[in-house]
Amino acid sequence: METIQNMQLKERITGTLLRLSWLAAIVLFVPMLSYVMFAAMGIAKILYMVVLVIIIMATAFLILLDEGFRNALNAESADVMPIVRNVYQSYTTIIYILLAVCVVLGVLTIILAMKEHNGKSSRKRIISSSVMIVLALIGCIVYATTRSKVLGA
Amino acid sequence: MKIYLYNRKDIKVFQNSQPLKINYKNGREYVEPQVDEQGRFEVEFVKKSEFSGGLWFIKALLFWIIGIMGFFTPKYAKCNHSLDCKVSGVDGNVPLNVSFIHPNPKYGVCAGVKLKEEGYLVEGAEYILDKKSCARKKFYSFLSGIARLAVIVLAVVLIIKAIIG
User: Is the model's pLDDT at B141 over the cut of 60?
Assistant: First the structure.
């Protein structure tokens, strides 16, 4: 006879596995996020220059007489590309371990959720786990396709 | 026969001490209990706090560790009320609709089980406050907070030591 405590324990195990698998999936996306941040910094620099040009035109070029403003035009942004390269390099082996962790935990969660027969809760867990596995696979593919571009640059 | 369940949350359904499979279709949960030769059935709706059973501390500690300081394990139910409701009757060839109204600690409401249909025997329909579980949960929350703070402080100290070193 299955007691309520056993059922609660099994549900807690399934829920914990699901959360840990999502954590692994998010960690898997770190190199891609660093690459996006690098790209975003490029966009931020462009916007910064656009704002400076607007200020110059609004002041009818008179602000160019100010030395401080001229220095702002020449300011260089920090080079973050080496950091992104380091992250990509360190993830060479880690990413496949993370993918394996995501898939194993995800499949375990799906199996346990199907055995629970817990109505809406089981269905939510199965869907969440499936989405997580797909995202992890996509993350790996994106990493593999951008790796040569980042490390080769 | 079918019994539709509304707002069930974490309530379990048993028949003859065996858990019933809870199905989910078209946005509704339902169970299909067995009926005897006379068409009679009896189901039990049970809810107990996870802190009410034996070895609760060891289980909570284990999941706190595995769930990385308890952040990656499902939250424990706020409600420390228990429910043990028996519904019995004769299968009238119409589905039964059972709604659950859960206690709200903020408003102090001790609700329970409500049947849309009449003519069925309902025993123990109300939630009962489980004081022991309440006290255990408070103790766990306090201990968990202290432990998290201790781990974070330790991590910061080790990082500072590593940077200085």
Answer: yes
- Mean pLDDT across chain B: 88
ipTM: 0.86
User: What is the residue extent of each domain of chain B?
Assistant: 3-164
Interchain CB contact of B136 with A (< 8 Å): no
- Chain B residue numbers with beta carbons less than 8 Å from the beta carbon of A17 are none
Torsion of CA A12, B52, B76, B131, to 10 degrees: 170
| B64-113 pLDDT, tens digit each | 999 999 999 999 987 678 889 999 988 878 888 999 988 876 666 667 88
Domain with A115 in it: 4-38+79-152
Q: Is A119 in contact with B50 (Cβ distance < 8 A)?
A: no
> Got the DSSP string for B72-122?
TSPPPPS--EEEEEEEEEE--SS-EEEEE---BTTTTB--BEEESSSS-EE
Check B74 against A7: CB less than 8 A apart: no
Is B107 at the interface with chain A, CB within 8 A?
no
**pTM of this structure:** 0.79
A127, part of any domain = yes
Q: What domain count does chain A have? A: 1
B27: closest chain A residue by CA:
A120
Residue A55 in any domain: the answer is: no
